[in-house]
Input
Amino acid sequence: MLQLNLITGFLLLCGLSFAHGEMAMQSRFVKVGDGVQLFTEATGQPERGTILLTMGATASMVWWPDSLVTLLAKAGYQVVRFDHRDTGQSTTNLPGDVRYDVFDIAADLIAILDAYEVETANLVGMSLGGYVSQIAAIVHPNRVRSLTLIASEPLGIAYEGEGIDPKVLQHFAGMADLNWTDRQAVVQFMLKIAELSAGSAAPFDTDLILRRIEKELQRTGSIQSAFNHSIMSGELAPHLNAGRLDLPVLIVHGSEDPIISVSAAHASSVNIDGSQLLLLAGRGHEILDADVPRIAEAILVLAAREK
Output
């Protein structure tokens, strides 16, 4: 199941702050225990708490819709998002040089909370981000107030319908022949990933995705290194199981997700006591701008619940 997610004392080094509209924004690098620097960005003030957004495999924080960050911040939360290892402005190793596993990625979440001096936070994870957020919630239960899993698998639980759509797998197989020095070829490769990941609920927004891809490419020195996530390891111990989650949990999933089947959401719902399930008809492995208000409202309602 980890492979399915993947195909898809801490030191504060420096900080910058500025105004973004009416909301304060702060960016800083956080150095974790093994010397890796993670680029982070915080929007809003923690009047009601902190929400930590963790994106999926191979993706930096630019894939979180800005509108989602804005709505959550305007509701009184400090919203923190960050670049994974090997993505964006965070520490990037050469392609194939993977010096971390899934547990290191989960530990990065706690490192970021420590750097921002946050005792407890509401975690929101997309795909792999939801997977590692579950690990963090189980290993550090006193640090996590609520958990939102978007297009994610249930930790340590098999489910019917596992597997990626063959068209997506075929496209990823072409990565071996991709000329990573040809910027336009890379753009088209990434655009196709987004197209294959989309559902049928809305026309595919090519212009929006191209803007995000261009921003992604501008922020990294090696986009190929982001795909190191696909060879990341991590064998789960028996106690790392979604059924052990004991906190408010929201499950958000598209009914047409070709990367992680909607069956994963149903399995999570069945195995996580008291969880809430929000199914998005016709959506794929994506967060559509049109769905942001509904998703933000559900996250905020969950965050307001007592653990």
About this structure: The chain has one domain: 2-304.
